[in-house]
Amino acid sequence: MKIAVLPGDGIGPEVTREAVRVIEALDLGIAMDEALVGGCAYKAKGHPLPAETLDLARASDAILFGAVGDPDCDALERHLRPEQAILGLRKELTLFANLRPAKVFAGLESHSALRPEVAGAIDLLIVRELNGDVYFGEKGFRQNAKGEREGYDIMSYSESEVRRIAHVAFRAAMGRGKRLCSVDKANVLETSQLWRDVIVEVAKDYPQVELEHMYVDNAAMQLVRAPGKFDVVVTGNLFGDILSDQASMCVGSIGLLASASLGERQTAHGTFGLYEPIHGSAPDIAGKGLANPMATILSAAMLLRHSLGLAQAADRIEAAVAAVLADGVLGGDLGGTAGTAEIGDAVLAKL
Ligand SMILES: NC(=O)c1ccc[n+]([C@@H]2O[C@H](COP(=O)([O-])OP(=O)(O)OC[C@H]3O[C@@H](n4cnc5c(N)ncnc54)[C@H](O)[C@@H]3O)[C@@H](O)[C@H]2O)c1
Ligand SMILES: CC(C)[C@H](C(=O)O)[C@@H](O)C(=O)O
Ligand SMILES: [Mg+2]
User: Where is this site: Important for catalysis (predicted)?
Assistant: First the structure.
């Protein structure tokens, strides 16, 4: 069993280090190889996703990813920016299904941005499409008829792209509360009308799942008003990006939300995938030992479960994280004083 570890930029290396320590402590016989990705890869090798990094990712059973993004690189041509590395990995490896679970941990109800009685009911899964949408359409700058500069990004989804993510979402709903909410903007966008039509077609294969459609603006509102009503949410790349950051604050902090990005490729042990916190490189706190590593530690648990078939080890990590949070060992993002390594030490002590 082999994991490619891609720490990346900013707090990426800090949070990834703690997740690697947790995996090592379980002594599961997993080999871990590290490579450069993002702004640090651009600075060292001239490209945010060097060929050797992609080769290592392909040759592994799973990828543990930190975060990419570096303010020094924000003025580079787009194809050289750090963010292109994560977009490139998702696309090159056909990791089209991004699972972003959001659940309130016992004892953290009062740390949510919502009232505790509202927050306490949250247990949802966002299934975000990851290979299409406005992210990957034609984009550029041009001059309009008035001679002004104009930027454009084409939004589109093909029916096969919607169908494959729909099946992932319906199957996820079957394994949970059997309720699926498809989020779109079909009142305005043809991309969303196609999305909705295909979701309705696929629903015929899953008669036990109760399907609801919701416009994204309403979904953003309902996520704050009554988040406990959601079970599985399926949505496109852009809406899923935004709603998952919002869901993180409903739970308490962006430093708590993990993710799995999966495709169809099977390895000897499970489904090949990339695992990362939903947050970014957080340049404002990078290098200070302040980042909450829980999202990355929980991503490591998802990796063990989905890609390596090690469900018991994943359960152990998740139980340790829950115990540490219940003990009140919290980082600054949750109003506490614990640093990155201190939180990692606390998880190790509970394993
Ligand atoms: N998948 C990724 O690698 C990824 C995801 C999101 C953003 N980014 C990139 O990261 C850079 C910064 O983006 P941003 O500021 O919009 O988003 P961000 O998620 O990096 O940070 C947003 C805010 O949340 C805080 N935060 C994030 N993670 C935290 C943690 N683990 N513990 C405590 N606080 C945490 C940050 O300090 C900041 O105040 C940009 O270059 C962006 O493109 C990368
Ligand atoms: C960094 C960026 C490309 C990325 C995205 O938009 O998907 C990030 O926000 C995320 O949520 O993983
Ligand atoms: Mg995001």
Answer: 135, 185
Structure tokens at 211: 């399907």
Confirm whether pTM is higher than 0.90. yes
Is 9 catalytic? The answer is no
Q: Note down the domain range covering 192.
A: 109-251
Whether the complex's predicted ipTM surpasses the cut of 0.90: yes
Edge-to-edge strand ranges of the sheet holding 123-129: 31-34, 2-8, 62-67, 271-277, 258-266, 97-103, 123-129, 232-235, 179-184, 210-215
Distance (angstroms) between ligand 1 centre and the Cα of 226 equals 26
Mean pLDDT, to the nearest integer, of 134-162?
97
Q: What is the pLDDT of residues 87-114, one digit of tens each?
A: 999 999 999 999 999 999 999 999 999 9
Residue to substitute in 72, 254, 325, 334 for testing ligand 1 pocket (most ligand atoms within 8 angstroms of CB): 254
Question: Which residue's entry shows tokens 């989020």?
Answer: 183
Residue 101 falls within a domain, yes or no?
A: no
Whether residue 183 is contained in a domain is answered as yes
Cα of 336 to ligand 1 centre, how many Å? 19
Tell me the C-alpha to C-alpha distance, in Å, between residue 27 and each of 31, 165, 228, 313, 350.
10, 35, 37, 10, 15
Which of 206, 222, 251 corresponds to the end of one domain? Answer: 251
Paired sense of beta strands 97-103 and 62-67, if any? unpaired
- Per-residue pLDDT reduced to its tens digit, 42-55: 999 999 999 999 99
Residue 217 a catalytic site member:
yes
Q: What is the CATH number of the domain that holds 55?
A: 3.40.718.10
User: Residues enclosing ligand 2, CB less than 6 A?
Assistant: 83, 86-87, 241, 278, 280
Active site residue 153: no
Structure tokens at 204: 């015929």
